């Protein structure tokens, strides 16, 4: 690790075994599909075979009459069909109303005595479609005369005005800083390139699931694999027209999400089926459903132009980016526009982004949403500039790096950030210092940026008489956040991490907590845990004062977990250890609960720099990764093993997106590779060990300096691999994925 | 109307009768009829390995085996790896090496890794990666999983 300065922590920075670990290695951890309730019925969902069609009518009578079928629901069963229109739930996407907008769009759902019966009954639902022309390419969808998905949609323009004609362009965002034309005029060298990326899926191994029970008194309970218990509660209450107090979401383990389990697809249909049957209903997706109807991240088309002086100074940066939103507006274009040049300090910038609907699944957040595409474009141009200027690519980045006080084009000004420290750590790394030789081998580097976020988090911790501390929270644990919260509470109380027992509880049992995403959880959970601890410390000081019969200000709780009071009548020091005082609680006024509700905006941005060595097989076009090093500023690494795990996992997802993963469509808009054989995510055999270097530039806006680590490592792999492949074979691959097919198209001699 | 049959097998050393449909997979039977909910479904077509179990000493994807085929068989799932008092060294190594994040693929990896070590107690990194290539993990990038298997093989847990 590269650490600038760090207090002498006792728990933070250690590697305890995670609190929820044993259940996960013995098979007892309860995931959503493991929920078993008395009388529970399984169900299945009918999906659109068409990419774009009007629904003329749905006749469910044959399915309802099928032996074993207990209920069928369609969008007509929504009480109001108003629903939420945000990221989480959209009634029309959960069950299509007047139109289907992509192959896989849900149309109806069936509950039956067993899953096979429910699946059989899907064939008995008669849907009359009027098939409409579809559009599958983001540039085609932006053209005049393109098939229009939503006649009512008008472009929201950067100046706040609305377009006046039907369009597939939902939004145009522009960020402008300085004078980009003057900047390009002042440049000695200008490089402008076009790039494309294809849709890629989050690829969590656990398919979506939801179990719902609608009781006779109109109280709905939901168990679902989600990144946000409260987000599902609010979205489902909205879609079902129920007050929020009537929907309770229970915590279950989540088998991966990466942003893709923010939207809720199944809870509302399961609840509607439960209302009709009076039984709990469980819906689970097949892998094909997951790939065709959930997630993915946007495909994009990008143009990036950067001007530089001969000495390497960037004089102007410009980007034009169109993001596929899928069937409904809401791609991660906004974040993509803010991220595109975020690692760099340049006076003159112009950034245009477009959110475009087309006949593909509605996109969902995916790890640093929007950033991998836009920063891929920018980083690849920077690699070309470094070559043209004959500069080391890390050095050129260092020369132009954003630093404290740099203002992004969107107006945000950085506090202390760690991009330069990452670049320096990369420069000094054993990997970058090593020699790489051999035919068809190459090395590439690239940097990445992600914001990280804060938002609301609620927690409560109670001190037990034996000195242990159960901690309840509302943030879903997607990869170790129970452990990081418990560690930060333990640090603040001066006790052992093992003495804290973290629990995630239902939405009625803890205060509102924003969803797990945006790399917010270690930051916001940690802050709430710290505030809980401070609340406990204050209360324990008061209790000790009562016991010692002294003034409260004469008692102090030390960071070592020792509570010290004034000397007693005989002049002897009075002190309690945490456990000693905890044992006194039952007889001196009862137990103590510390609580916290925090909503902080002082999250710290994250930067990363990756180095990769590859060998390209000229016969097959396959790219083999020989060596990989991920460097990242974590602020403070609470549990370094899980920080490394996030860096390695993010890098491997970025590698998948860069080299193999893509949605392939036929002429009718059907995904033709909707299995995990054909949608090819990296296996253990495809990757080497992924070396990590954790840089720690503490975030001054957090008690322990946490920044958040989950997202930024997915950003650098694609441009780093682009540079490495170029170094190996002399070809600039400007379309993701850089698959064997695309590489062979460039390297094989032309047959003609 | 019932097409159900009773399949008797030994699951994690317990003789077990499973009432199954003739079209149920072993994965469905283990989860629904035997209560082995540690066996996970990730794809239901043999591509992710989350449902890995040992069937008569052979590593299989339980989604690709018909329940009706396993009459008289010996099956080991993730629930059968530890003994009453101790975790299996692989389970301990997965915890110590932080080889899991969300944990959904972990049962399959543990069963597959145990099958590897039973056959080859001292595998190279390449042999571990080759053997585990049928098990997908989306969280870890495999680094810590491979290290955990190496650690368990070295007997250092």
At a glance:
Chain A has 752 residues and is α+β, with helices and mostly antiparallel strands. Helix content of chain A is 26%, strand content 24%.
Give me some keywords for this one.
heterodimer; A: 752 residues; alpha+beta; Aldehyde Oxidoreductase, domain 4; seven-stranded mixed sheet; 24% strand; globular; B: 157 residues; Ubiquitin-like (UB roll); DNA polymerase, domain 1; 5 helices
Count of discrete alpha- or pi-helical segments spanning 4 or more residues of chain B: 5
Flag low-confidence runs of chain B. Answer: none
Biggest sheet of chain B, open or closed, and with what strands and sense?
A: 5 strands, mixed
Query: What is the rounded distance between the termini of chain A?
Result: 54 Å
CATH architecture assignment of the largest domain in chain B: Roll
Roughly how many Å is the radius of gyration of chain A? 27 Å
Structure characterization notes:
The complex is a heterodimer of chains A (752) and B (157). In chain A, the strands form six sheets. Chain A has a seven-stranded mixed beta sheet with strand order 4-6-2-13-10-11-12. Chain A is built from 20 helices and 27 strands. In chain A, helix 15 (481-493) runs parallel beside helix 16. In chain A, 26% of the residues lie in helices and 24% in strands. Chain A starts with a strand and ends in a 5-residue tail after the last helix. Among the domains of chain A are: 11-16 and 456-594, Aldehyde Oxidoreductase, domain 4 (2-Layer Sandwich), CATH 3.30.365.10; 415-452 and 604-752, Aldehyde oxidase/xanthine dehydrogenase, molybdopterin binding domain (Aldehyde Oxidoreductase, domain 4), CATH 3.30.365.10. Chain A is an alpha+beta fold and 752 residues long. The model of chain A has no long low-confidence stretch (mean pLDDT 96). Helix content of chain B is 31%, strand content 17%. Chain B is an alpha+beta fold and 157 residues long. In chain B, helix 2 (89-96) crosses helix 5 (143-154). Chain B has two domains: 4-80, Beta-grasp domain (Ubiquitin-like (UB roll)); 89-154, [2Fe-2S]-binding domain (DNA polymerase, domain 1), CATH 1.10.150. Chain B starts with a strand and ends with a helix. In chain B, strands 2-1-5-3-4 form a five-stranded mixed beta sheet, with helices on both faces. Chain B is globular. Chains A and B meet through helix 1 and helix 18 of A and helix 2, helix 3, helix 4 and helix 5 of B.
